[in-house]
Amino acid sequence: MAYGFGSQSQRVYEALRDRIRTGELVPGTRLPSHREMATTFGVAPMTIRQVLARLEQEGVISREHGRGTFVRAQTRPGVLVVTDAIPVRTLLCAHVTDAGYKALEADGPAAARAALESDHTIALILTAVRMPTRETGTTFISLVRRRWPHVPLAAMLDDPDDLAELHGTAECPVLILTKPIRAPHVQEILRLALPPHLLLPTRARDSS
């Protein structure tokens, strides 16, 4: 299991996370004590402590000394859309927003770098390669893979050879969007790229 969790810890983690993500437990809610939750879930208090430590690390809850453990207000993960083509940028931002995520726009590498340096909610980059030349796009992709290796990146291709310069290198993107771009393709990239704790449950997406 992830984070060295056993099956019981994973079960409790997923249950609490889903209750928070779907809004059943709203920001500001004070969680029951370790012992109360251990009884509710039928697990040991140590299991609850492990789960709460992981949720706190992910920014889902906060533990306040002398007061208890509270659900934190959630910041929607940001998806940075980088392209100099306004229609494509508008379409991608609409797909990202419809999926429940925060869409951020950049009309080229300079604006994208500024966004990455200032906005730490960015969890995924969707970037064109031709901006307008392939060299511009591949240079930007190489920069991102070196400076922000923890942020997943998906490249939008006009032609299968757009990434030829990066083939065989560690900087070559694994995630690819081909044109014409459609909502299901964007949703699949989100599912593949974002870690489980940042994925929005279906109910939350549908109500956004």
Structural account:
Strands 4-3-5-6-7 form a 5-stranded parallel β-sheet, with helices on both faces. Strands 1-2 form a two-stranded antiparallel ribbon. It contains 8 helices and 7 strands. The chain has helices at 7-21, 34-41, 45-57, 86-98, 109-118, 134-147, 183-193, 202-206; strands at 61-64, 68-71, 78-82, 102-106, 122-128, 153-157, 175-178. The longest helix is centred in the N-terminal third of the chain and has 15 residues, at 7-21. It has 208 residues and is an alpha/beta fold.
Please describe the topology of this protein.
Layout: H1 7-21, H2 34-41, H3 45-57, E1 61-64, E2 68-71, E3 78-82, H4 86-98, E4 102-106, H5 109-118, E5 122-128, H6 134-147, E6 153-157, E7 175-178, H7 183-193, H8 202-206
Parallel strand pairs: 3-4, 3-5, 5-6, 6-7
Antiparallel strand pairs: 1-2
Oligomeric form:
single chain
Bulk shape: elongated
Strand order of the largest sheet: 4-3-5-6-7
> What helical percentage do the residues reach?
40-55%
Class of secondary structure makeup: alpha/beta
Radius of gyration: 20 Å
Distance between the termini: 31 Å
Number of DSSP strands?
Answer: 7
How many H/I helices? Answer: 8
Low-confidence stretches: 202-208
Largest sheet: 5 strands, parallel
The pLDDT mean sits at 87
Strand content: 15-25%
The SSE string, one letter per element, is: HHHEEEHEHEHEEHH
Brief account:
The protein is of the alpha/beta class and 208 residues long. Helix content is 43%, strand content 16%. It has helices at 7-21, 34-41, 45-57, 86-98, 109-118, 134-147, 183-193, 202-206, and strands at 61-64, 68-71, 78-82, 102-106, 122-128, 153-157, 175-178.
